Each structure stands twice: as C-alpha cells, then as structure tokens.
C-alpha cells in the first residue's frame, strides 16, 4: 500500500472478495517505506533508542494504513473497522522489537465478522503481557496474518506482496527463475531462513505449526501465486526446489579457544542470552588443545554480537575475535534431497568449477548451505540454478 491510489485499489479488491460472499479479515502493513523512515528518524533523534519507544514509534506506520483502508472501504459502501494489534487481541511476550505472539484473543474480531463488518487489523504489532505495545520484528505483518488466520480457523491466508510468488531463485539474479506453484511448509521454512525474502520466517513457522494454508501472491497483478501446503499436497517432486542467497550475515571467529568440555556451551549461552540469533557454527579440529570457532549472525546484530563475543572470548581465554562482513550464503532447498544422494557433491563441484571457495557448510535434511565470498554470490546462484536445471 504505497500511496493513496494503491490503498483504493486494495479497498476495491477487498470489496469484491466480500461481495463474492467470503468473510474476510484484512491485515495490513505500513505504507511503502514508512517503517524504514521511522527507523531512520529514531536514529537521527537518539543514539540509545530504548526498544520500548522504538516499538511505540514503529506501530504508528500500520495504524496509518488500517485507518486509511477503512476510509477507502467506506467510500465503496463496505462496512469496515480498524483495529490495532492490541485491540485485535494479539498478546505477545515482552521482547521489544522482536516479540513473539503468546496468545490471541480474537473475540472482537469474531464479533466484527458476525456483524458483517470487515475487520482491518494493523500487522506487525501486539501488546505484551506487561501491557506495553510491541512489534514482531521486521516483516512481522505476515506473522500477524497467519496467526489471525489460525485463531479464526480460516480456510486460507493469502499474503499479497510485491512479487507474484515464490521463485526457484531470486529473479533479479536469475532472470529465468520460475514461479513455484506449490511448495511444502518445510521447504518454505528453509527458504525463509536462508535469505528468501518473500515471507517472514516466523509466519511460516506459525503456518506449519497450525496447518494454515498460505497463498503468496501479487497485489499488483492479483494472479495466482505460490501455495504453501503440507508436503503430501505438493505436486512437484523435484530433488532441488529452489536456490536462495543471503548477504545479510556476518561471520565471527574466536581464535585459539581452549578445547575443553563446557567451553562452547558457555560461549553460546552468553551469546544467546544477549539475544543474538546465531546461525551456522563451525569448529576446527583441535591443535595442541586449542581450536577456532566461527559462527554467522545477522549483520544488524554485528555491534552487539562483537561486544558479547569479545567479552566471552576473554572469559574463556580465547586469543582473538575476528569479524568478517563480506560473506554471502548460498543454499539449495528441496524435500527430494532426503532420498537422493549426490546433491551435495554436485553443488560443491559446481562451485568449484566457478572457482568459488567454500568457507563454511551446514546442512539439514532438506537444505545445503555454503558460506562463500559475497562478491561471488550471484555467480554461485546462477551456476547452481543451471546445474540443477531449475
Ligand atoms: N512494516 C513492518 C516492516 O516494514 C512490518 C511488515 O512490513 O510486515 O517490517
Ligand atoms: Mg513491509
């Protein structure tokens, strides 16, 4: 909903869905770059930015959207009422700027629906168990939508975005990338966790846990997009379904860590307690009782991660902490990998043929990720897309 025109277009679409006879609940996100602008403004005003105040600030963006959309709906003769996250009964924990939903009390939304009125809910926000306004982390409107859909037992949660679905790779990097008609929750989860920017990770977790069918589609063309469903319901049984890439992480390495039981436990406990979400971890073989440990973390958490890691390095007697901000991660995702050996070898061969050095590797049953130099990321994605004939 970038501008007034778009808001009227969305209102028109909602009005048509409603007239078709569907009960609809709408969750909206902030207009255009509003959230980014508010984040910037906070930075211009303050060096400390208390998280509680950041949340109060950011929720304003979605409030603007819900009220304007309801006004546009009123002009079309559709009865609609706006709700903040708090009014919609979205109760979260107290972790400001990345709160988790703990409960939804949708009674106001249900009575609104029962009265034939369209509830329009501000995405990305809730109220904490301590009654403060919270936000769910960037991209959190998806999570709001899925959570509301789950709590109402909706048939489908349609997520309208600026792309027409989930693609076999980012079409800006691989122009021949295809739209995937159906993908499983697990694959979508791995995609979102490894740099796929289409859906917020939390929203996919929620959808999988509560079995909410998702339909990711474009709010520009309204054409059918990608369905995210249970694995049995996916039609394509490709070995590799998609290739994702992520340049938003940094690598931190602790050098010469004493190799004793309990040291890694201590390091990662301290880092976790500081709220840093770490991802890949690699530990070297021990040489003379010492080892190196590297891990990746979001770039956004770099300052915090570095501070905490340096503290903990001193505590355990590691010699030094190095941070590397020029890494990129490329991942292959596919449920078919479980039963097809050789995918890893083909991936490594493809990277080798393009002279790409692999710095870290991590795998799950349906994903293989490699950390490489960030400047080789696009080449890697293109080469793998071709090697696996996506
Ligand atoms: N407005 C929030 C953000 O930009 C939430 C969202 O877009 O889903 O992150
Ligand atoms: Mg957004």
TrEMBL record:
Q: Does the keyword Transferase apply?
A: yes
As recorded in UniProt, coiled-coil segments are none
Pathway in which this enzyme or protein is active:
Amino-acid biosynthesis; L-lysine biosynthesis via DAP pathway; (S)-tetrahydrodipicolinate from L-aspartate: step 1/4; Amino-acid biosynthesis; L-methionine biosynthesis via de novo pathway; L-homoserine from L-aspartate: step 1/3; Amino-acid biosynthesis; L-threonine biosynthesis; L-threonine from L-aspartate: step 1/5
- State the family it belongs to: Belongs to the aspartokinase family.
Which Gene3D superfamilies does the annotation name?
A: Acetylglutamate kinase-like, VC0802-like
A family per Pfam: ACT_9
Superkingdom of the organism of origin? Bacteria
**Residues engaged in binding ATP:** 161-162, 172
Q: What Gene Ontology cellular-component terms does the record carry?
A: cytosol
Q: Which UniProt keywords apply?
A: Amino-acid biosynthesis, ATP-binding, Diaminopimelate biosynthesis, Kinase, Lysine biosynthesis, Nucleotide-binding, Transferase
What's this protein's name?
Answer: Aspartokinase
Q: Which organism is this entry from?
A: Ferrimicrobium acidiphilum DSM 19497
One GO MF annotation is: ATP binding
Q: Please list the residues that bind substrate.
A: 35, 62
NCBIfam families hit by this protein = asp_kinases (TIGR00657), PRK06635.1-2 (NF005154), PRK06635.1-4 (NF005155)
Which residue numbers delimit the ACT domain?
Answer: 252-332
Name the catalysed reactions.
L-aspartate + ATP = 4-phospho-L-aspartate + ADP
């Amino acid at each position: 909903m970038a501008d007034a025109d778009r808001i009227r277009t969305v209102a028109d679409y909602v009005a048509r869905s409603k007239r078709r006879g569907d009960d609809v609940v709408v969750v909206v996100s902030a207009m255009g770059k509003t959230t980014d602008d508010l984040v910037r403004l906070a930075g211009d005003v303050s060096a400390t930015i208390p998280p509680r105040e950041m949340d109060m600030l950011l929720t304003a963006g979605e409030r603007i959207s819900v009220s304007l959309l309801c006004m546009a709906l009123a002009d079309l003769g559709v009865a609609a009422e706006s709700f903040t996250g708090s009014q919609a009964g979205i109760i979260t924990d107290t972790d400001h700027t990345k709160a988790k939903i703990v409960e939804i009390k949708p009674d106001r939304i249900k009575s609104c629906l029962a009265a034939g009125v369209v509830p329009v809910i501000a995405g990305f926000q809730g109220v904490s168990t301590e009654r403060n306004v919270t936000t769910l982390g960037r991209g959190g409107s998806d999570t709001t939508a899925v959570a509301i859909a789950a709590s109402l037992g909706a048939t489908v949660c349609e997520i309208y975005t600026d792309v027409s679905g989930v693609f076999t790779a980012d079409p800006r990097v691989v122009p021949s990338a295809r739209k995937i008609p159906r993908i499983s929750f697990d694959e979508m989860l791995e995609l979102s966790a490894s740099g796929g920017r289409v859906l917020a990770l939390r929203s996919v977790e929620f959808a999988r846990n509560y079995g909410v069918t998702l339909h990711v589609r474009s709010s520009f063309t309204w054409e059918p997009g990608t369905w995210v469903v249970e694995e049995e319901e996916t039609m394509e049984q490709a070995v590799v379904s998609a290739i994702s890439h992520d340049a938003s992480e940094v690598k931190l390495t602790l050098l010469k860590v004493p190799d004793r039981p309990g040291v890694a436990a201590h390091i990662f406990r301290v880092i976790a307690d500081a709220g840093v979400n770490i991802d890949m971890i690699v530990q070297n073989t021990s040489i003379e009782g010492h080892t190196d440990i590297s891990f990746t973390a979001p770039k956004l958490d770099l300052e915090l991660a570095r501070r905490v890691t340096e503290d903990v390095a001193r505590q355990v007697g590691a010699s030094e902490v190095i941070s590397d901000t020029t890494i990129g991660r490329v991942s292959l995702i596919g449920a078919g990998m479980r039963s097809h050996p050789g995918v890893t070898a083909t991936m490594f061969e493809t990277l080798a043929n393009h002279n790409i050095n692999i710095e870290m590797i991590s795998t799950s049953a349906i994903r293989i990720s490699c950390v490489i130099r960030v400047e080789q990321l696009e080449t890697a994605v293109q080469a793998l897309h071709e090697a696996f004939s996506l």
